[in-house]
Design goal:
Blueprint: H1 2-5, H2 9-25, H3 31-38, H4 43-55, E1 59-61, E2 69-71, E3 81-88, E4 93-94, E5 100-102, E6 115-121, E7 135-140, E8 149-154, E9 158-167, E10 170-174, E11 183-185, E12 188-198
Parallel strand pairs: 3-6
Antiparallel strand pairs: 1-2, 3-5, 4-9, 6-7, 7-12, 8-9, 8-12, 9-10, 10-11
Helix pairs in contact: 2-4, 3-4
């Protein structure tokens, strides 16, 4: 790609980091994550690199969304949705990355770059028919309606699958299991909303 040849070494490193995260976990890094990775203390320093990549047509960014960095012209490779890892449907669990593809045939459009899959770990959503070992298909978005099932990421980089209930001064992450209590956090980012559940029957 000609645009890649015009990058400085640092711009190329930042681009490769963004590309790797999007491929591995299904969503891009925050400005803070890029700064931490490359020891860039000022957020403005990171933004300068992002603006250069955007100007050269390699990424796109949406205003006012912390994780809205997307690859502008990435050719589709393997068939299927990116399997971004496992998601806790139980207690909070540290977000982990994974680099696989999972093919759900014609149920979901693999060319839709806003979709990715997660393997469910735990049974906190069992009353919503989401069981341990199921796959949930997630549409990447930063907002959700009250009560929707979301993948939420806390400030401690812990991800969980729960129903989303913003309340005054806090967020309630509600399980669908009458034996479990809600999780309350002050801050959380929505990484996406569940649009499908796939279960393998042996």
């Amino acid at each position: 790609m000609e645009a890649l040849e015009r990058l400085t070494d640092r711009q190329r490193e930042v681009y490769d980091f963004i590309r790797e995260l999007i491929h591995h976990r299904g969503y891009g890094p925050t400005v803070r994550e890029i700064g931490d990775k490359f020891r860039i203390r000022s957020p403005n320093g990171v933004v300068c690199h992002l603006k250069a990549l955007e100007k050269k047509g390699l990424i796109t960014r949406e205003a006012n969304r912390s994780r809205a960095i997307q690859l502008a012209a990435e050719p589709l490779g393997e068939r299927g949705l990116p399997l971004a890892g496992r998601i806790a449907a139980g207690v909070l669990h540290e977000a982990v990355e994974q680099n696989e593809q999972i093919d759900f045939g014609e149920m979901f459009d693999a060319s839709d770059r806003d979709l990715f899959a997660l393997e469910v770990s735990g049974d906190s959503m069992i009353e919503d028919q989401i069981a341990d070992g199921d796959y949930v298909v997630i549409r990447k978005q930063a907002t959700a309606r009250k009560g929707q099932i979301v993948v939420a990421l806390t400030d401690e980089n812990e991800a969980t699958l729960k129903r989303w209930f913003p309340e005054k001064g806090r967020i309630r992450l509600e399980p669908a299991n009458s034996t479990m209590k809600p999780i309350y956090v002050k801050n959380a980012n929505i990484l996406g909303v569940v649009v499908g559940v796939v279960r393998k029957v042996v």
